[in-house]
Amino acid sequence: MHHFHYVGQDLHCESVDLAAVAKLYGTPTYVYSAATIADNTTRLSESLKGLDVQICFAMKSNSNLALLKHFANLGAAFDLVSGGEIRRAIAAGSDVRKSVFAGVGKTEAEMKLALESGIFAFHVESEPELARINHVAGKMGVKAPIAIRVNPDVDAHTHHKITTGKSENKFGIPLKYALAAYEAATKFKNVAIKGVQMHIGSQLTDVSPFVEAVTKVIPLVEELKANFGISYFSIGGGIGIVYRDALASGQPGWWQAQPADKRPITPEAYGAALLPLLKPLGLKILLEPGRFLVGNAGVLLARVEYLKRGHGRNFLILDTAMNDLVRPAMYDSYHEIVPLHRDTTRRALTADIVGPICESGDCFAKDRQLQEVGEGEYLAFMSAGAYGFAMASRYNSRPLAAEVLVKGSNFELVNARESFESMIANERIPAFLK
Ligand code: LLP
């Protein structure tokens, strides 16, 4: 389900040799495949064929403007979580009237911006938020479209830091109190009830928690349709991707070759499991996928600086670090790491693959096996398109990486590497220190 493959011995993204990209723009650099994004988007919408489906891409997973424009061209809208994201949706020239505004801590200014932009709906996370939306909409003389996020208390069987649908998580209103929250909403003059929302977690590798959660929420959905005339049900995002065999999973036949009980989630399996539950509702269905659409559509290119041998361990030290891709340090997550130039005649190397940042957590992989590589050679981190650049920081005063978009044999820089000047542009030395 992606367009990264070796042509001869050289890793390509679609028809572009990734070593050429690394040489031209330097490293670390994120590279995205437009064809992979388009394929994933189409496959997911087709998996729920026959339903009125709106994909709202979860912009938090990757908010590069070029990708947002690509999504807008594909008919997708956005799941937005901040004023900054609303402004990005506008800057990409997308139609905010199809997008939704989520998040537990919406400020008054963000609510105002969302209303001015004609947001499709607010996904409300609490009663005090509802009161604030009512207040802001009242001041503007408009009615705010809303859906309440319900928390179905379902275990998504994913990493605890990205589980959201359990009762102990901060998200949504517990299912048993949801109806009362809708009734309370009817008392607010400046809100209009439009739908209902849920999202149980991220990187789900099995459809059963989705089925369990949707099944649990459906009686409420039916009641809301009958009593409040809601028009849509958003079932959130969360579809997982392949990390461990990321490269191989792009090859024809790989999915079919996986044993049925080990096969990762496919959009077809997702659709087949959910369509029979959703169809009878007769509602518009919103999907909020992030990782599924962009995760395997992106790689992070890095250069080897040193191979530090001996002392009981080998360390492969790269020019990329936890500031560029924080997922391994933050969630112990696995990213496959492959050489841009493959050479099967070389010896194998077992090493810890690390970045230059001054802390031990700056480690991408322990005891990883790969072909022997040396200074100046390039590697690619697979499945880095989601929550990669989006979570990058400048820790150790490292500038933000560059981003490149590939389409067929075309490629273009879609975010220049940050300069030192722009890194310090907002900083000031106060007069009392001069
Ligand atoms: N909808 C809501 C309300 C969400 O909170 C999220 C993600 C999504 C949709 C999209 O979920 P996805 O389809 O991408 O799984 N930084 C973590 C993931 C955090 C997910 C936060 N919410 C990681 O790198 O794994």
- CATH class categorisation of the largest domain: Alpha Beta
Name the CATH architecture of the largest domain. Answer: Alpha-Beta Barrel
Let me know the CATH homologous superfamily of the largest domain: Alanine racemase
Radius of gyration: 23 Å
Q: What is the mean predicted local confidence, pLDDT? A: 96
Beta-strand content estimate? 15-25%
Give a count of the beta strands, DSSP E runs of length 2 or more. 21
Which stretches of 5+ consecutive residues score pLDDT under 50? none
Give the helices and strands, then pairings:
Layout: E1 4-7, E2 10-13, E3 16-17, H1 18-25, E4 29-33, H2 34-47, E5 53-58, H3 65-73, E6 77-80, H4 83-91, E7 100-101, H5 108-116, E8 121-124, H6 127-140, E9 144-151, E10 173-174, H7 175-186, E11 191-197, H8 208-228, E12 232-234, H9 254-257, H10 267-278, E13 284-287, H11 291-294, E14 298-308, E15 315-318, H12 327-331, E16 337-339, E17 348-354, E18 363-371, E19 378-381, E20 402-407, E21 410-415, H13 420-423
Parallel strand pairs: 4-20, 5-6, 5-13, 6-7, 7-8, 8-9, 9-10, 9-11, 11-12, 12-13, 15-17
Antiparallel strand pairs: 1-2, 2-3, 4-14, 14-15, 14-19, 16-19, 17-18, 20-21
Helix pairs in contact: 2-10, 5-6, 8-10
Bound molecules: ligand LLP.
